[in-house]
Design a protein that fits this description.
- By secondary structure, the chain is an alpha+beta fold.
- Helix content is 15%, strand content 43%.
- It is built from 4 helices and 20 strands.
C-alpha cells in the first residue's frame, strides 16, 4: 500500500512537473514570437523619422516635398484592414523631452496630409498604398525656425490588429537653411553679365594689385582672404575663378561675403562644389546682392599638399 501510494505521488509529481515544463516552454516560445497583439506600425528607421531640407534664398524657397510611407502589421492580416492617421502636434514636446531636441511645431496649414488612410489586404504584411504628407512650395516661406518635427499618429485600425504604442507614430523632420549660394550651378545659370577686366582693374584690394588676378597673367594671389573694393555699389550675382596651374585640376574651396559699407557683411556661404567649365570655377548666387565690397577666402589644393592660389577672378553683376 505504501509503495502504491508512493508511486501515485511520484506519478503525480512527474505529471505536474511535465505540465509546468510544458507551460514554461510555451511561455518561452511566446516571448520569442512577441506581443500577443497583432500590432500595426510604421517603420521609417531609427526614431521613426524621415528628414527633409528647406532652403530659403533671396529669390525663392526650395524644398517642397511629398513624403510617402506604408502602414505595416506584425503578422499577416487575417481580414481587410484600414489604418487611419492624424497629425498630432501635441507629441512635439514629448519627442523633444525624450530625445533632448528642440524641434518646433509647424504652423497651421503648412503641412498637408494628402492621404490619411492606408489599406492592408488579408495575408499581407504592409499596405499597398501609403500615407502621404506634403509641403507645397507656397508654404515654404512660413518655415522660419531652424528645425521642425511633424508627428503622425495612427488614430484608428479597423480590421486586424491594433496600433502599436511605440511605433504607431511616424515623424517628419524639416530642417531649414538660409542660403545665397547655388551650389554646383553652371555658368548658364548665372544672372547678369561679367564686368570687363579693364573696369575691375580700377578697383582696389586690401592686400594686392588687382591687375594680377583680373587679367590672368600667371602672377596670381596666394591662398588666403582678400577684400576687393569695387568703388561703387553693384548688384552682384556671382564670381568666376581660375586657379593657378589649373591643368592639375586642384580642389578649390571658396567662401564669399558681400558688404555695402565694408563693416556689415552678408555671408554668401562656402562651397567646394563649384561647377568646372573650361578650367574656370563658377560661384553662382541665387539672387542679385547689393554690394560694394567683396571678401574672398579660398584654398586651392593639389594632391593634398600643393597650394597654388588663384590666377584670375571675374565678377558678375546685374
Amino acid at each position: 500500500m505504501k509503495k502504491s501510494m508512493f508511486k501515485y505521488f511520484a506519478y503525480s509529481f512527474v505529471a505536474a512537473a511535465a505540465l509546468t515544463l510544458a507551460s514554461c516552454g510555451s511561455d518561452e516560445s511566446y516571448d520569442v514570437t512577441g506581443n500577443p497583439d497583432n500590432l500595426v506600425y510604421f517603420n521609417l528607421g531609427g526614431d521613426n523619422t524621415r528628414s527633409y531640407m528647406v532652403i530659403h534664398t533671396p529669390v525663392s524657397h526650395i524644398g517642397a516635398f511629398e513624403a510617402k510611407f506604408p502602414a505595416k502589421i506584425l503578422r499577416p492580416a487575417d481580414a481587410p484592414t484600414t489604418v487611419s492617421v492624424v497629425m498630432d502636434n501635441s507629441l512635439v514636446e514629448q519627442f523633444n523631452a525624450a530625445h533632448g531636441t528642440n524641434y518646433a511645431a509647424v504652423p497651421d496649414g503648412v503641412v498637408s496630409l494628402t492621404n490619411a488612410v492606408a489599406h492592408i489586404q488579408p495575408s499581407e504584411y504592409a499596405s499597398a498604398d501609403s500615407i502621404q504628407v506634403s509641403v507645397p512650395e507656397s508654404s515654404l516661406a512660413q518655415l522660419t525656425e531652424k528645425a521642425y518635427i511633424v508627428p503622425f499618429r495612427i488614430s484608428q485600425v479597423q480590421g486586424s490588429g491594433k496600433a502599436s504604442q511605440e511605433r504607431g507614430v511616424a515623424y517628419i523632420v524639416i530642417n531649414t537653411e538660409e542660403k545665397i549660394i547655388n551650389d554646383g550651378a553652371r555658368s548658364d545659370q548665372m544672372r547678369g553679365t561679367a564686368i570687363p577686366a579693364e573696369e575691375m582693374a580700377a578697383w582696389s584690394c586690401d592686400k594686392d594689385d588687382l591687375a594680377y588676378v583680373m587679367n590672368g597673367d600667371w602672377d596670381g594671389w596666394e591662398d588666403g582672404t582678400y577684400v576687393i573694393d569695387m568703388k561703387a555699389e553693384k548688384k552682384v550675382t556671382g564670381l568666376a575663378f581660375l586657379p593657378l596651374y589649373y591643368n592639375y585640376s586642384p580642389d578649390v574651396v571658396m567662401a564669399v561675403s558681400l558688404s555695402t559699407d565694408g563693416a556689415q557683411w552678408v555671408e554668401c556661404g562656402q562651397t567646394n562644389s563649384m561647377s568646372l567649365e573650361r578650367n574656370w570655377r563658377y560661384y553662382v548666387l541665387y539672387g542679385a546682392v547689393p554690394a560694394r565690397y567683396i571678401k574672398l577666402t579660398y584654398t586651392t589644393d593639389i594632391w593634398g599638399y600643393y597650394h597654388f592660389g588663384m590666377d584670375a577672378v571675374t565678377v558678375y553683376a546685374e
